[in-house]
Amino acid sequence: MLCLQLVRVSLSASKFSTALPLAPISRVVPGTSRLRSSMAAYSTLSQSSKLLFRQLFEKESSTYTYLLADVLHPNKPAVLIDPVDKTVDRDLSLIQQLGLSLVYAMNTHVHADHVTGTGLIKSKAPDVKSVISRASGATADLYVEHGDKVSFGDLFLEVRATPGHTVGCVTYVTGDASDQPQPRMAFTGDALLIRGCGRTDFQGGSSEQLYKSVHSQIFTLPKDTLLYPAHDYKGFAVSTVGEELQYNPRLTKDEETFKNIMANLNLPYPKMIDMAVPANMVCGIQSKPT
Amino acid sequence: MLCLQLVRVSLSASKFSTALPLAPISRVVPGTSRLRSSMAAYSTLSQSSKLLFRQLFEKESSTYTYLLADVLHPNKPAVLIDPVDKTVDRDLSLIQQLGLSLVYAMNTHVHADHVTGTGLIKSKAPDVKSVISRASGATADLYVEHGDKVSFGDLFLEVRATPGHTVGCVTYVTGDASDQPQPRMAFTGDALLIRGCGRTDFQGGSSEQLYKSVHSQIFTLPKDTLLYPAHDYKGFAVSTVGEELQYNPRLTKDEETFKNIMANLNLPYPKMIDMAVPANMVCGIQSKPT
What we know:
alpha/beta; six-stranded mixed sheet; 14 strands
């Protein structure tokens, strides 16, 4: 039997306080629930005294932007992953309020559903450097490749090539070291979504390549690794490698089944692609990278 | 001068690996950025090996639902704060996949903008108990008051009365003990929103009471306390007491100014209130609490 307690305790005095009985009220609830599975659940809070982390959402394209900073470093250097043009003012205002120094505005890939905020950020904060993979073919200040390490203060992100949604997709993963956040955090772009994955029918997409990318570069991470995708359409914010290994409806299948699923999605033509992709090839138009 | 490094490191062998130069590429970026303030920034990840935490979003009403569980307890007991009727299936599916035992479906208050999911949850999982404040006047299985402690496994939430948006609003705060999550986490409902607060012009609302609630019950928490509101309309997910003490545009003002701001918001009549409030007074209609 599981005994859960609803107990009255004394809080600081308040005008809202009422006289509280001091005797604990114990309630016994059933120890077995219908809502059970055999899965190992992980504590889903990454532990680091250095890392300031914020997940930000752009509602129209359901895009997540991620802010990470080393707040124990004197300059509080920060990176922004997958900023959206429409929310640049919000993001820069937050960065300013938190006293952070934004150094890198990074993309996981050339997006087709929104315009990146990197160019607009550079126009407002010229010291910031835009970052994208060399394989993307897009223009940026700095190009990363598989195996690169992007440092901000005493924290760093590993770059893992995860092509398949687009030819230049990368996943950024927090460092594998005792002084880095534990569990690790992976920013997967559109390669792996929560209980899903990005489509593979444009921008050099390949379902075969995506399958290999996810299985070799993401599913090989520790099972408690926190997965932060570029989008979510159902209101989920985070998953873990362990969860997706067990519950991803596409990527738990064998490769042939996965390819068949991806070949038969019958998705509509992305409404923003003809505007967004050309813009994103040059940092969102507004930028003239040096 | 701040020296940030973009370094090539060796990752596990992959078909996507390319020959990588091993010499570090150091780039010097300016040590002063325009994006600076004097504010102390806090690491915004709560540390606990016990706590599984998920923030879930319902897009139509911009409502956050929070899942907390003690995953080191054999039964993995869980609580759900502010579930929405439309996302009950998503939430219960996630709880099942994670192997958790949902014990409490809790509301911070009687919502006016969506129908609570507590009744629907009880119809699908009868062992779950609905929880709301006694002061709300609503029907539920368990009523909490200021000073109560709601335990799930070895974790617990304190109940703090924070009326003002409605007469029965409470804030649930993780426990103040060394074996509880650090920093603390406060689920503020509509009492305190990120850079805002709930309106005070219906359901027994009072701007005077709200001001006192936030200042006496939330702003007195440690500055690194993570604030998780019931809603956000701009894509923010979390704030801290320190941030809101410095940047909340309403609650940083003196009480008279705050009351004037709240009296002159000229907000439209809430479109769902006439349906949602009567439903939420009885656990979202579907439930017949015992």
